[in-house]
User: Fold this.
Amino acid sequence: MSTNLERRQQLSDPVGRLARMIEIREFEGRVKALFLEGTVSGTTHLCEGQEAVAVGLAAALRPTDPVTCTYRGHGVALALGCTPTAVLGEIMGRSVGLLGGVGGSMHLCDPDVGLLPTFAIVGAGIPVAAGAALTAQVRDRDDVAVAVFGDGATNIGAFHETLNLAAVWRLPVLFVIENNLYGEYTPLPRTTPISDLADRAASYAIPAEIVDGQSLDEVSAAVSRAVARARDGGGPTLLEMKTYRYSGHSRTDTGPYRPDGELEAWSKRDPITLYAESAGLLRELDAIRADVIAQLDAAVAEVKAAPAPPIEAMFRNVVAES
Ligand SMILES: Cc1ncc(C[n+]2csc(CCOP(=O)(O)OP(=O)(O)O)c2C)c(N)n1
Ligand SMILES: [Mg+2]
Assistant:
């Protein structure tokens, strides 16, 4: 089994990038099944359909670049290099989880690959990423911090306050919007008067790009451009990834509010198929998927057999002890 840094390295190869997108898709399918059969309690938010954003982003960053993301963050965690056992272990509340099983689906973290905690509060990771960028600036390191968040989060005060300060201080930070057209059960036009959220960057004199979030290559290219500018002292960039979540908002939501044909239309531009085509890997697809599934089945068995954390675990790591 590869370590998380080895897994990150695998993204330098097209087969590795395709395999990771398939892994995220298959992983989320298993998480959904485990929740629906009642094996795991609580709720979970899946990112099927948004794989190209996660993998394209991770492929363009260094493991030392800090990333914050949301409760819909299983895919970003796997893309950055966290192992399926560690992510599923956390989701299922087992001691093999990233945080020993005390965090759950919405609270993943692995500093080795740059994953700062994922956030359940909408917009909360945005100022934290700016803080990480300020750390890099003050310590004269060339790390670039990234905040990944949804379209709904661009209506939160923390988004506007952070973009403002990041521009004034020229912080090395990327703001990556996963515009999947919905905030919970509400379509974007009912909450937001513009459809291109990238337009919001102009108020803060921040460069912005609208990106095809279904295309791994376009995501990676846009992130690479923005990262290069930030490492060079050019300050923040806003990237709006146009994408779509295939599942509902959370565990039991089947998406009855979607217009007929919308899901089918987006499925025609599925990120995994698009990348397999553009990378010339269509014929390898089945073999790669079979390999990924075998590894995931082993991870699920390992997690199911792992113990829950002891009760004292909830009192650990609450205060810093010297
Ligand atoms: C501050 C805050 N308000 C409301 C919620 C409840 N809530 C959870 S997810 C969500 C929708 C956010 O939509 P978006 O930012 O587009 O992200 P997506 O879920 O689509 O990835 C809301 C309103 C919350 N978690 N935090
Ligand atoms: Mg959304």
Remarks:
- The chain has a mean pLDDT of 97.
- The chain has one domain: 4-315.
- The first helix runs from residue 4 to 9.
